[in-house]
Amino acid sequence: MMFPVTQIPMAVVGIVMKFFQIVISVSVGMAAGCIPLVGFNIGAGKKDRAAELYKLLLIFEAILGAVALVIVECFLGTLIKIFGAANESPVYTVFAKQAFRTYLCMMILATVNKGNFIYLQALGKAFTSTAISMIREVVFGVGFAILLPQIVVGASKMNPVPHQMGLDGVLWSMPVSDLLTGIISAFVVVYTFKQLKK
User: Fold this and answer.
1) Residues forming a β-bridge with 153
2) Confidence check: pLDDT of 87 > 70
3) Beta partners for residue 163, in sequence order
4) What's the chain look like in SS3?
5) Cα–Cα separations (whole angstroms), residue 113 to 4, 147, 164, 183, 184
6) CA distances for 45 relative to 1, 11, 195, 196, angstroms
């Protein structure tokens, strides 16, 4: 059964989110596994060990995101067949490839950010973790999904008339949110490391 053209974006975003949620679930599992180790080391006054674990977590979260990105770039056709419909129209396939590559292009920052949120909670910085997470999900996530589609972009060879970003804006809302959240998180990470090293 083939999707009507008007239903293709919803169907495609659904399969992109399935893949994204699988990767984020692994990211959350890695970070959650650090919680008892953080509690033990902080309780024992071994803040240097907690700092080292923090660094290792962020490195492995980045590796996870990089692996996911490589999978998206190298095995995109297979992903579409696994999560979507194998015999869909060319329009479906073209849009699915665009959606995967656009929506997940900041996958490394997405996994690092998620690991950072959970580790900050383990360190007892629940307010900081919640604040950054809310900024990512509500302010940036919802805000850019509403704002970016309304932005007017210039003409191109394919479309000589200036037009709104529309659906492209929705797809770009995810990587833009992750990028800005990553910048904020970088300052928090540096500050947290300084505290742990004291």
Assistant:
1) 163
2) no
3) 153
4) CCCCHHHHHHHHHHHHHHHHHHHHHHHHHHHHHHHHHHHHHHHCCCHHHHHHHHHHHHHHHHHHHHHHHHHHHHCHHHHHHHHCCCCCCHHHHHHHHHHHHHHCCCHHHHHHHHHHHHHHHHCCCHHHHHHHHHHHHHHHHHHHHHHHHHCEECCCCCCCCCEECCHHHHHHHHHHHHHHHHHHHHHHHHHHHHHHHC
5) 36, 23, 30, 10, 10
6) 61, 51, 13, 10
C-alpha distances in Å from residue 25, one per residue of 2, 51, 61, 92: 30, 23, 12, 27
For 67, how many CA atoms within 13 A lie in the half-sphere containing its CB?
A: 13
Average the pLDDT over 138-143 and give the result: 90
* pTM metric for this prediction: 0.85
Query: How many C-beta neighbours within 10 Å does residue 152 have?
Result: 8
Report residue 65 as tokens.
């995101």
79-83, long-range: CB within 8 Å, 24+ apart, which pairs?
A: 79/15, 79/19, 80/15, 83/15, 83/18, 83/19
Q: Please, which pLDDT band fits residue 80 given cuts at 50, 70 and 90? A: confident
Q: Which of 30, 38, 15 is nearest to 111 (CA)?
A: 30
Q: Which residue has the tokens 């699915």?
A: 96
Residue keyed to tokens 């998206």: 72
Looking at residues 11-25, what average pLDDT do you find? Answer: 89
